[in-house]
Design a protein that fits this description.
It is a single chain. With 471 residues, the chain is α+β, with helices and mostly antiparallel strands. It is 56% helix and 16% strand. It folds into three domains: 7-165, Beta-Lactamase (2-Layer Sandwich), CATH 3.30.450.20; 225-311, Helix Hairpins, CATH 1.10.287; 320-467, Histidine kinase-like ATPase, C-terminal domain (Heat Shock Protein 90). α5 (225-275) packs antiparallel against α6 (283-311).
């Protein structure tokens, strides 16, 4: 299996390549600029010395017209040593009179007219080999001057091989320096890359622990902003996973408990009926208990399926316009006996018709669960009050019941799955603790909000919002 390259190797290779390319580019630019500078400097030096030699030789010719050659030769040699160049003195026809290199056999040889013409035309600087007098092309600088009547040419030359030597020396110095700097730079990059990738390895190690179910892992704080953000994100993820894991464990425990209790009752009563432990006269009574427990199991399974569909996004509300007051009245009629038994006063239904734009079936389940909850906890002779307040494209609906109310510790938990207050467990053994959780899920499915208000010893009120018109 191809594991791929690590971040360390990729980062190190990229940095090394960038440094190497930078050195190559820097070397090329340095070589080009230095070569140009060397040539221009060489040209200026040749020009200066050529003019100086021509001036001094001209002065000697004027001062000593008959014996000037020896002095001129010495002057040319001094200048040749001073600028590491060769000097040639010719007459106007290019015939060599004096020179500072080679044998005396070349005395009398002629420099080409083309070279002399280029010196006249191009301002005394050309590349040439003196028409074959030199074995290689040279930088040639020339000055034309007159002394005692005739014209003369003072020529100075420097072999282009000096350029190559200069470039070679420059490359050698640059190469040695580049290698030293490159080694130091790669050394620094290596350890910097190791330091930079350490948090990645640490995060990977801690992530594996999370993958194995250890949600108590705490990612450290890093100095680098990106790693700090990543660390915070993983800490938040670990906290969320721990919360979900706790909820899952609680959910499984609650479901197991809620299923086990009625199934144990059903199994015990059925066994009692079969083995004759329960007498015939009480058979109907226990069959009714068994039926009640079966209905309880049915409600539990149906509620769990509805929640699963809502959370999976498989339940799409069928939006339509309907009157919520008529829906409430129909729901209250199903609880007529319990309302009369507890002598409950119904308030707030004398309002004008209130329209909602929602799924009527799902809203009916919301109303049913909230009214059932209100009837369960209202005090005998108390009241259930409905409120309606249209605000823009939303309608705020409230259902309040008098009674003992909820404590501050209970209010944040009432919408949790399988949550039952101690009072609820005492008042209703048939509930499964999913009613208010389903209510909350259905309201959220419609894009609404729900909240609970309560004053201990006075009332409990559920307030939710739903759309009253098409968007």
């Amino acid at each position: 299996m191809n594991k791929g390259k690590s971040i360390f190797s990729k980062y190190f290779v990229i940095c090394s390549a960038v440094i190497l390319i930078s050195f190559v580019c820097l070397g090329a630019v340095l070589l080009l600029v230095s070569s140009r500078y060397f040539i221009e400097d060489r040209k200026a030096l040749l020009k200066k010395n050529c003019e100086g030699a021509a001036h001094e030789v001209c002065q000697v010719m004027l001062d000593d017209p008959s014996e000037w050659k020896g002095q001129a030769s010495e002057i040319m040699k001094e200048y040749a040593m001073g600028c590491n160049a060769h000097f040639i003195l010719t007459d106007k026809n290019g015939r060599v009179i004096e020179k500072t290199y080679g044998s005396d056999e070349t005395i009398g040889a002629e420099v080409s007219d083309d070279l002399l013409g280029e010196i006249d035309e191009n301002g005394y600087y050309v590349y040439d080999n003196f028409g074959g007098l030199s074995n290689e092309t040279s930088h040639v600088c020339g000055v034309k001057f007159a002394a005692n009547g005739p014209d003369y040419y003072m020529l100075t030359s420097a072999a282009t091989s000096d350029d190559s030597d200069y470039v070679a020396n420059l490359l050698e110095v640059f190469g040695i320096s580049a290698v030293i700097v490159l080694v130091i730079a790669l050394f620094i990059v290596y350890f910097a890359t190791m330091k930079l990738t350490e948090p990645v390895k640490e995060i990977a190690t801690l992530s594996k622990k999370i993958g194995k179910g250890d949600f108590d892992v705490k990612f450290p704080e890093y100095d680098i902003a990106e790693f700090k953000q990543l660390s915070n994100a993983f800490n938040e993820m670990a906290a969320s996973l721990k919360s979900y894991d706790t909820m899952r464990n609680s959910f499984v425990a609650n479901v197991s408990h809620e299923l086990r209790t009625p199934m144990t009752s059903i199994g015990g009563f059925v066994d009692g009926l079969l083995d004759g432990t329960i007498p015939e006269v009480k058979r109907d009574e226990y069959l009714r208990i068994i039926s009640s427990e079966v209905h309880r199991l049915t409600r539990l399974v149906r509620s769990m399926l509805n929640l699963a569909k809502i959370e999976a996004g498989e339940m799409e509300p069928k939006l339509e316009k309907f009157s919520v007051i008529e829906l409430i009245v129909e729901t209250l009629m199903t609880f007529e006996n319990r309302i009369e038994e507890k002598q409950i006063e119904i308030r707030g239904l004398d309002a004008p018709r209130i329209w909602l734009y929602a799924d009527e079936g799902l809203v009916h389940q919301v109303i049913y669960n909230l009214i059932e909850n209100a009837i369960k906890f209202v005090n005998k002779g108390g009241y259930i009050q409905f409120g309606f307040e249209p605000i823009g494209d939303r309608t705020v609906i409230s259902i309040r019941n008098s009674g003992e109310g909820l404590s501050e510790e209970e209010m944040p938990l009432v919408f949790d799955r399988f949550y039952k207050t101690d009072k609820s467990r005492g008042l209703d053994a048939t509930g499964v603790g999913l009613g208010l959780n389903i209510v909350s899920s259905i309201i959220r499915l419609h894009g609404g909000k729900i909240m609970v208000k309560s004053v201990k010893g006075e009332y409990t009120e559920f307030v939710f919002t739903l759309a009253n018109s098409e968007p």
